[in-house]
What does this fold into?
Amino acid sequence: SYELTQPPSVSVSPGQTASITCSGDKLGDKSACWYQQKPGQSPVLVIYQDSKRPSGIPERFSGSNSGNTATLTISGTQAMDEADYYCQAWDSSTYVFGTGTKVTVL
Amino acid sequence: EVQLVESGGGLVQPGGSLRLSCAASGFTFSSYSMNWVRQAPGKGLEWVSYISSRSSTIYYADSVKGRFTISRDNAKNSLHLQMNSLRAEDTAVYYCARDTLSGSYFFDYWGQGTLVTVSS
It folds into this structure.
């Protein structure tokens, strides 16, 4: 079965850039998206189709996808961005989530 | 405003059954494919099942295949998940999630979730 691997945690200082990777076999040939989940809340879509932002998502969130890796970048990270982040792709009639990354804003 | 409201969660013994529901509003429910996604306590997200807009296509995760049944009632704007032969590992918050119309497979709206606890 298809797997997506993320680093368990990423730490970033306020105002700096956080990059979260998502690795999977030939992931660049698929469409990747990213969800943000804060404690006790439902996931929220922040990036879809590799690099598109839904309405209402700040411009500091951006995405890319090439080769075996998709990347979510948070520029000018704010305290409110502290959350768990999950990548997701679709493969063989299955929706696959990444393992999740906890972003801590120090 | 798109709203997805799950219900039906609770405590059930191993081997028991439970039926979850999701009430949809604020969009044309019959036009969208829908999904169930779950999250065990302290764990990551796990996709459970997909149903197309007219119920013609249904997919299940291997972990629930043969035990869970997804269905929908477009006349009542509702989505359901019948869960049988429940196991301790099915304990999770179950989310109802809307698929997009873009042709790419992702979820643009999620409900608040309903907790299912399987324990004796």
Remarks:
- Chain A has no helices and nine strands.
- The radius of gyration of chain A is 13 Å.
